[in-house]
Amino acid sequence: MQDIFRKFRDVGIIPVIVMEHEDQAEKLADVLCDNGLPCAEVTFRTNAAAKVIAAMVKHRPEMLVGAGTVLTIEEVDAAIEAGAKFIVSPGLNPTIVKYCQSKKIPVAPGTQTPSEMEQAISLGLDFVKFFPAEQSGGLNMLRAVVAPYGQLSFMPTGGINANNVRQYLADDKIVACGGSWMVKQAMMDAGNWKGIAKLVKEAASIVREVRGESKLVNHLLAS
Predict the structure, then answer these.
(1) Which residues on adjacent β-strands are paired with residue 179?
(2) Is 41 a catalytic residue?
(3) How many whole angstroms separate alpha carbon 66 and alpha carbon 63?
(4) How far apart are CA 127 and CA 201, in angstroms?
(5) CA separation, residue 40 to residues 1, 30, 101, 112 (Å)
(6) Per-residue pLDDT of the chain (223 residues; tens, 9 = 90+)
(7) CATH code at 2-222
(8) Is 129 a catalytic residue?
(9) Would you say 215 and 10 are in contact if contact means Cβ atoms under 8 Å apart?
(10) Of 7, 51, 85, 129, which is the active-site residue?
(11) Which of 13, 27, 51, 106 is the most exposed, having the fewest neighbouring CB atoms within 10 Å of its CB?
(12) At what angle are helices 25-34 and 49-59 packed, to 10 degrees?
């Protein structure tokens, strides 16, 4: 499991994808991989999620594709069957965490409060999502709780954008940030792949600016 989270740190920004149409999956996978962010968290907010994951995994097997907004055991099973390499949920549901652990698939549940962070630790987790990040106090909130929960590292998601992601990435406790600003359904529907590519490339350049070149990303891009 730690291997996936090390890869998260190398990628730095995890595109959070809400996709209505599975026939756009291969094109989006190409845009993400070819412009420096070979990773995607495909959310189960649409009925197409599992098919999108399967299409991306088959088309670009070197890509890190996972499932987000996973709320039920059935969705965990669907994500695993589709080829997801990790699971992300908006909240901390012990049943989902334990089920993912039993299936040996990395899981990052959402936490917001110290109580939820303690619950994550009690479940044997050392990496969690912080959601919604900006609305919950952002980096200042995380820094306020990091001392008693030093074993935890975080993936902030929610309100993250090109204007504030640098400060998150510069903090040692942040493994990666989840963000949806690079990929919008309206842009995909309009066929604005160049616009998406530009935003993805800009996001990847921010990661390099803050953290330096990533051997993993370079390897994935060359695969």
Answers:
(1) 15
(2) yes
(3) 10
(4) 26
(5) 17, 11, 21, 22
(6) 778 889 999 999 999 999 999 999 999 999 999 999 999 999 999 999 999 999 999 999 999 999 999 999 999 999 999 999 999 999 999 999 999 999 999 999 999 999 999 999 999 999 999 999 999 999 999 999 888 999 999 999 999 999 999 999 999 999 999 999 999 999 999 999 999 999 999 999 999 999 998 766 766 655 5
(7) 3.20.20.70
(8) yes
(9) yes
(10) 129
(11) 27
(12) 50
**Which position among 7, 22, 41, 51 bears the catalytic label?**
41
In this structure, what token pair is assigned to residue 61?
């097997």
Q: What is the model's pTM?
A: 0.95
Separation of CA 184 from chain center: 15
> What ranges do the domains of the chain cover?
2-222
Q: What is the dihedral of CA 81, 87, 88, 93, to 10 degrees?
A: 90
Taking the CA atoms of 98, 157, 150 and 119 in sequence, report the sign of the dihedral they define.
Answer: negative
Token pair of 205, please?
């350049």
